[in-house]
Amino acid sequence: MGQTVADHLLERLREWDVDHVFGYAGDGINGLLAAWERAEDPPMFVQSRHEEMSAFQAVGYAKFTGRTGVCVATSGPGAIHLLNGLYDAKLDHVPVVAIVGQTNRSAMGGAYQQEVDLLSLFKDVANEYCQMVTVPEQLPNVLDRAIRIATSRRTVTAVIVPADVQELDYSPPGHEFKMVPSSLDLSRSSPIPSPADLQRCADVLNAGSKVAILVGQGARGAAGEITEVADLLGAGVAKALLGKDVLSDELPWVTGSIGLLGTRPSYELMTDCDTLLVVGSNFPYTQFLPEFEQARAVQIDIDPTMLGLRYPFEVNLVGDAAPTLRALLPLLAPKPDRSWRETVEKNVARWWEVMQRRADVSADPINPELVFHELSPRLPVNALLAADSGSGTNWYARHIRMRGQMRGTLSGTLATMGCGVPYAIGAKFGRPDCPAFAFVGDGAMQMNGINEIITIAKYWREWSNPCLVVSVLHNNDLNQVTWELRAMEGSPAFLPSQELPDFPYADYATSLGLLGIKVERAEDVGAAWDEALAADRPCLLEFMTDPAVPPIPPHATWDQMEKSLESILRGDPDRADVIKQGVKSKIQEFLPGGSRS
Ligand SMILES: Cc1ncc(C[n+]2csc(CCOP(=O)(O)OP(=O)(O)O)c2C)c(N)n1
Q1: pTM of model > 0.85
Q2: Nearest C-alpha to atom 4 of ligand 1 is from which residue?
Q3: Binding pocket residue ranges, ligand 1, CB within 6 Å
């Protein structure tokens, strides 16, 4: 038998070195599934419980490997389910290719079952490239462009292949009129700005005396260069959350995360600096950057379409972070006055002391800050960390000290719930030798994490290192939003929307053959992490955490950072009021949206 279009599609993916495809079956891709059955080689088909999870797994795979993720789904409902994961990739600038089926060409336009206008459905999420393959000769061109565009522009592309086309005999494009031959291969380019533009940037940086640097995920791989620049300029460096793994938190002048979930030293770095250098970050919250008149600012980004946003920058350099900073270094004048750097370092040291004390405050039953604080020093240097969207994101941002080759990610821009567990699964397929961790709230677990634990149970034996720890903050509350309601609306928690039903997370994991540990006392937190790390299989750690621990924003004063927590947790009868009514001005002023201090 000759090759079908579907056979060739898999072969082409193989030629592009695609080793995993995250997907879910359906008759819209039956031809493809049959081809998979015939093929003895990669790419491996990884089955999830829901197409959105397949898309998140492809995103997690891409985020942790730096490669292009590929997901596949059937027509109609399967394609629709992919969307949220694809938007997550698009908004965080991660390359993902979606391959979806469609009804047979003979049925198209006939209001047929499962027929959805996929070109329109994907028009926005895959706006850079979304095409339907209607004849075999079109396949290589469409697939190659989808991969090349997704990879080079760090975005989402979509390939739609009608079911009957998948089963046609493959014939390649010829050397003919209206044929589009195609080829493999893609080199990486690494732009560097012109010497004149570099000099303009250096002039601004040299003129300042209190330099702040903000790095994002675009600065990954440039840790050495950032360190040299920061040392020369006596600068402190804050990190956007997607760039949390760009620099080690063991460096005394790294102020940690920025923004509402960020640290007080990052906040002070921005409020007190006179010069700002942003490298590879699209951090959206302008209010956490310096006042407009306060600082002269310059920016470096590889993507010219993302430059110049968020702040009135004087110089916007198009460049790859590492080579651009290397070219900039000889133009920078060392700053002999180190007093600014010393202040930054003092703040950072104080921050870690405050974090220790906040984690030590007792709560009912467990202070969630302690969960992250206990884990941080235990993390292996090659750990892969996936944080879901919820109150835990605060504690991930603040308590986890990145070091070594650790990688960490989250849904930075879409901030979607439900990404944590599938990201970690994608990580394990991309880098099976590394221990992986997912930090997830009980709401996100109930949304989809519970189902993806089944996927972990299905596949973990295939990973060379079985360590995958899913930690669940079991607080029976959609806690992050509960605090937002209190802060922004001055509203008591609306229980019908905020309260969550109970679920036995650890027992459930145990029932699937994984290790499940329920932790109900603060003194057991450290030992539970140790047990999970030493386990011979993936582990679900269920921490019974106190929903009354508030995510204090970074503009709270140092004193407020500590005292607010103690007063809320200890100050009965206030505690009941704060939690049940949530409108006490005492806490209001510390919360996102509350008055600035
Ligand atoms: C798909 C999606 N739906 C809703 C939200 C809004 N949201 C953000 S955090 C959050 C609460 C998360 O609750 P949970 O997972 O239990 O974590 P917790 O905050 O309680 O730690 C909600 C509802 C979102 N970000 N994404």
Answers
A1: yes
A2: 417
A3: 389-392, 415-418, 441-444, 473, 475, 477-481
170 within 8 A of 4, measured Cβ to Cβ: yes
Distances in Å between the Cα of 568 and the Cα atoms of 551, 578, 583, 597 are 12, 7, 12, 19
368-381 burial by CB neighbour count: b if 16+ within 10 A, else e? bbbbbbbbbeebee
pLDDT of amino acid 575: 52
49-86: pLDDT as tens digits: 999 999 999 999 999 999 999 999 999 999 999 999 99
Closest CA to 390 of 469, 479, 475, 258: 479
Classify burial at 484, counting beta carbons within 10 Å of its beta carbon; exposed 0-12, middle 13-18, buried 19 or more: middle
Instruction: Determine the atom of ligand 1 nearest the C-alpha atom of 440.
Output: 15
Per-residue pLDDT at 561: 66
Cβ(400)–Cβ(370) below 8 Å: no
Question: What's the CA gap between 107 and 30, in Å, rounded?
Answer: 16
Tell me how far apart the alpha carbons of residues 267 and 290 are, in angstroms, rounded to a whole number.
Answer: 9
Q: What angle do CA 546, 242, 329 make, to 5 degrees?
A: 135
Which residues make Cβ contacts (< 8 Å) with residue 325, sequence separation at least 6?
A: 222, 225, 226, 228, 229, 279, 300
Give 497 Cα–ligand 1 centroid separation in angstroms: 11
Are 142 and 56 in contact, with CB atoms under 8 Å apart?
no
CB atoms within 10 A of CB 53: 31
Instruction: Name which residue sits closest to atom 3 of ligand 1, judged by CA.
Output: 417
Mutation probe of ligand 1 site: the residue of 478, 484, 549, 579 with most atoms within 8 A of C-beta: 478
Q: For the segment 497-513, what is each residue's pLDDT rounded down to a tens digit?
A: 889 999 999 999 999 99
Cis amide linkage into residue 162, ω under 30° from 0: no
**Nearest atom of ligand 1 to the alpha carbon of 415:** 25
59, 92 Cβ separation under 8 angstroms: yes
Q: CA of 234: how far to CAs of 71, 121, 307, 401, 421, in Å?
A: 45, 50, 25, 22, 40
